[in-house]
Amino acid sequence: MKELIFSFLDFLSVERGLARNTLSAYQDDLEAYAAFLCGKGKTLSATTRNDVVNFMLSQKDNGIGASSIARRLAAIRMFYRFLVRERVLREDPTGLIDSPKLWKKIPDTLSVNEVEALLSQPDVRSAQGLRDRAILEIMYATGMRVSEVVHLKTGDLNLDVGFLRCVGKGNKERVIPLGKKAVAAVSRYLEKVRPRLVKNKQSDHLFVSRLGGSISRQSLWKLIKRYAREARIKKPIKPHILRHSFATHLLEHGADLRSVQEMLGHSNISTTQIYTHVNRDRLKAVHKMYHPRP
To answer: What is the CATH number of the domain that holds 163?
Structure first.
């Protein structure tokens, strides 16, 4: 089954152009499913609808959330369709299975003051501080995913006009405006820091490590968590918290949903609509606090 999984992932990479992170998630999903079937003594050709349902139930019993189970079912569905198309199997047992009902989880966000506190933590008197400030400014100014920031190239920037080009999930390209503070921070980094870090190395990555190589997603996440800790922010810090804050603050200040959708790179506006729930909760809190008859 491992060989079939790798063939399927190759198909997704070449034919669908899926991102490496998505492929890695699908691989984990399918390997979990393969381990479940192996434990039941089942082969792919002998699987039925009940086997897939039992796998989903076992995931729920193990504490896996509904959104993760839905993604695993999506991966399994695509895998079976691929096997039927390649004539490895005759039938797809997932055809009549419904996805688990998903609840909308409101994302964690920072207040404007918390974002300001976070962005002010890097010591801009040092080279690393200038780089880190540029990273944080660009993340909050654009709402880009951590993986998208890591893969930014110097050629993706147009600082004169105040825009950057971002290649997101599924190799979809979008153009995002930059604010003046982000432009200023990135300009200082490019002028004073990046040439010293890269030295004689050939690299087109915008943000580089102290050794001149490309910075990793894990390093970026640790960077955000460290500065949040130094800013004494008590909220749980996750990789996309600046992305969530970017979207929430735009909507709170009157941005239209379609524009925010385009800047975030969401293919479906229902994904963007979750941020309107954050806004409504804030309005309810303000009403409760200040209305004479809450």
So the answer is: 1.10.443.10
